[in-house]
Design goal:
The complex is a heterodimer.
Chain A: H1 4-12, H2 15-29, H3 32-46, H4 49-64, H5 71-85, H6 88-104
Helix pairs in contact in A: 3-6, 4-5
Chain B: E1 2-3, H1 18-23, H2 40-52, H3 57-66, E2 79-82, E3 88-90, H4 95-103, E4 107-110, E5 116-118, E6 123-125, H5 128-144, H6 165-173, H7 198-208, H8 211-218, H9 232-243, H10 254-263, H11 275-289, H12 308-313, E7 315-323, E8 329-336, E9 339-341, E10 372-373, H13 374-381, E11 385-386, E12 393-395, E13 400-402, E14 404-412, E15 419-421, E16 424-426, E17 431-433, E18 438-439, E19 443-445, H14 451-458, E20 474-476, E21 479-485, E22 490-498, E23 502-507, E24 510-514, H15 516-521
Parallel strand pairs in B: 9-15, 10-18
Antiparallel strand pairs in B: 1-20, 2-3, 2-4, 4-5, 5-6, 7-8, 7-14, 11-14, 12-13, 16-17, 19-20, 21-22, 22-23, 23-24
The chains are: A mainly alpha, B alpha+beta.
GO molecular function, one term (chain A): transcription coactivator activity
Main location (chain A): nucleus
Protein name (chain A): Transcription and mRNA export factor ENY2
Chain lengths: 107, 524
């Protein structure tokens, strides 16, 4: 079912990567991935994470100058901070949801 | 109490994107011209539908299977799709960049967010035509998804604000901007007492600090259909303008008072009134005057209004009457704006509470020296009550008059819940104020009092595992109205919450900072 190049890619992946890919497929197929994304968005807005990131972006833009800054610059600057600032409770909740979903749909 | 609802977009009066708009060329970059040939619009739509915002089960399945990097198989790493051919590649690992270079395909689309990347410009570009297609496809996919978690009850999915032409005009003509910081006190303003009008002032403070109501009025959503100048909703709108004007002198609400007297005759006059009565009367008048705001969805049924008052304050109270003989249940659901709770010490007996109801441990209130909690009052409110032999109900199942029990539960929770502690007793024998202290929490979980919880209890699931992750029935406190003194002569004040955890005491014209302890220790 996979095309030639995809089959090659699949073969070269580690076991862990293949497992990740399978889980992702399941989540996407059942629409759960979208729901989780929306849940995450809501949680991160609620706890003020989104506002913090926005403020940081503005700082970066001020530093680099509006004319010269690229999306890439912003990504590089805010990704580490963004990752670190996600509250543990949010991580826990998402994990709980994913686990529950996988348990429900175990094949 | 206001429910922790997601997407609480704090509507700061204006953060214009004018600067960004003037720099970005609306035509995007010139390199897209090579793409915009033949049937490009349809092709682009297909890409959005299949690989970015998959709305149907079929497209989701296809996306799940095929959206992996053609070089390394990963699905993460900011996957992009080439716009010119069927190729998916990681952005982070530069697989898509390699493809772009080798095949000279200079455009790719981000499968997570739908942004278009140009490899010549080396940045994401914003082409007006492509943006339009992206927006339409995203809307389509949302509609297909049904009701995802995030539809605000107002009926609109949360999107970032984009100014209309008219709004841009207004922004240009009014260049003054206000930045909302965490210790900014905008929205706080005292109210002059016009002669025993503290009962009105405390409610006004609570209403002006109800976030959804504030956002409704500050975004000018009221379209007035009343001919005269006596629309209370318009006056409310004006009131919000006064509160958020930045003026620090107390406001004199004489027009508001006059309108209230006009529309709620029973509250007219300068004697002391009941704050709770004022709240209900105010909500009622506002609800009646909101006729123009239905957005065309004219509900012929006056009980199913779509006005802002109903959307925020109206809940559904379920009443189940159970026949003691045939155990048939007759259910009715009535709308409510507030829950009036009896207190211990009144002439109607409070204790003991019947078993089968839970909740006292859920809300973590202090039971210091046996003080009554709000949850206790709610348990009493939702207990099954024997109606007695003198109040037999005609049972539809038995076709005769039988004894029955009645129980109240919450069918539908309002966004803002108002709890009224019945402190003023007006029975035939006496008129007095009950000053029993009732403790209340900062966060309240209404799950134990829901009709659905009662059903699962009846189905045998006694020990309900409290789902701490489910926020649907959780409320957070944002206003408390207090009365000091006696029935004949007293004074109303209120505590209101600003931002997440800053409390202020509103005593007519005087606003002072308050601690959470002050709030929780108050009578309520």
């Amino acid at each position: 079912m996979l095309s030639c190049s995809l089959q090659v890619a699949w073969k070269t992946m580690s076991k862990e990567s293949r497992m990740k890919a399978t889980i992702n497929q399941k989540l996407t197929e059942m629409g759960e991935r979208e729901r989780l994304k929306e849940l995450l968005r809501a949680k991160l807005t609620e706890c003020g994470w989104k506002d913090q990131m926005k403020a940081h972006c503005k700082e970066v833009i001020k530093e680099k100058g509006l004319e010269h800054v690229t999306v890439e610059d912003l990504m590089v600057e805010i990704t580490p901070k963004g990752r670190a600032l996600v509250p543990d409770s949010v991580k826990k909740e998402l994990l709980h949801r994913i686990r529950a979903f996988l348990a429900q749909h175990a094949t | 109490f206001q429910v922790n609802h997601p997407g609480d977009f704090s509507l700061s009066p204006i953060k214009p994107k004018l600067n960004v708009l003037s720099v970005m060329s609306p035509a995007g970059c010139s390199h897209v011209n090579g793409y915009k040939v033949d049937n490009w619009k349809q092709n682009l739509r297909v890409i959005y539908q299949c690989f970015v915002w998959s709305g149907t089960a079929e497209t989701r399945r296809r996306k799940a299977k095929s959206c992996i990097c053609h070089m390394c198989g990963a699905h993460l790493n900011r996957l992009h799709s080439c716009l010119y051919c069927v190729f998916f590649g990681c952005f982070t690992k530069k697989h898509i960049h390699e493809h772009a270079k080798n095949k000279r395909h200079n455009l790719a689309i981000d499968l997570l967010y739908g942004g278009i990347y140009c490899f010549v410009c080396q940045d994401y570009i914003y082409d007006k035509d492509m943006e339009q297609i992206a927006k339409e496809e995203q809307r389509k996919a949302w509609k297909l998804q049904g009701t995802p978690l995030l539809f605000l009850r107002i009926g609109e999915k949360y999107t970032t604000w984009e100014p209309t032409k008219r709004e841009l005009e207004l922004l240009r003509h009014n260049p003054k901007r206000r930045k909302i910081t965490t210790n900014c006190t905008i929205g706080l303003r005292g109210l002059i007492n016009l002669g025993n009008t503290c009962f009105m002032n405390c409610i006004v403070q609570a209403l002006t600090h109800t976030p959804l109501l504030r956002d409704f009025f500050l975004s000018d959503r009221h379209k007035c259909e009343m001919q005269s100048n006596s629309c209370l909703v318009c006056e409310m709108s004006q009131l919000f303008q006064e509160f958020y004007s930045g003026h620090r002198s107390p406001h004199i609400p004489f027009r508001l008072l006059h309108l209230v007297w006009t529309h709620a005759r029973h509250l007219a006059g300068y004697e002391q009134q009941d704050a709770h009565e004022f709240l209900i009367a105010a909500l009622d008048v506002l609800h009646r005057h909101c006729k123009g705001d239905d957005n065309g969805k004219k509900a012929n049924n006056p009980n199913h209004c779509n006005c802002i008052i109903d959307q925020i304050f109206t809940g559904g109270l379920q009443s189940d009457v159970t026949c003691q003989v045939c155990h048939g249940v007759s259910t009715t659901i009535d709308p409510f704006w507030d829950i009036s709770l009896d207190l211990p010490g009144s002439s109607t007996p409070f204790w003991p509470l019947s078993p089968g109801g839970d909740g006292s441990t859920v809300n973590g209130e202090s039971h210091l020296s046996g003080s009554t909690t709000l949850t206790d009052c709610l348990r009493r409110f939702t207990r099954p009550e024997h109606l007695g032999s003198s109040a037999k109900i005609k049972c539809g199942g038995c076709h005769s008059y039988q004894e029955s029990t009645k129980q109240l539960t919450m069918k539908k929770l309002p966004i803002v819940a108002c709890f009224h502690l019945k402190r003023f007793e007006h029975s035939a024998k006496l008129r007095r104020k009950i000053t029993t202290y009732v403790s209340f929490p900062l966060e309240l979980d209404m799950t134990p009092f829901m009709a659905s919880s009662k059903e699962s209890r009846m189905n045998g699931q006694y020990q309900q595992t409290v789902d701490v992750l489910n926020n649907d029935n959780k409320y957070s406190l944002f206003a408390v109205v207090n009365h000091q003194g006696t029935l004949e002569s007293g004074h109303y004040t209120s505590f209101i919450r600003q931002h997440k955890d800053q409390w202020f005491k509103c005593d007519d014209a005087i606003i002072t900072k308050a601690s959470i302890k002050d709030v929780l220790d108050s009578e309520g």
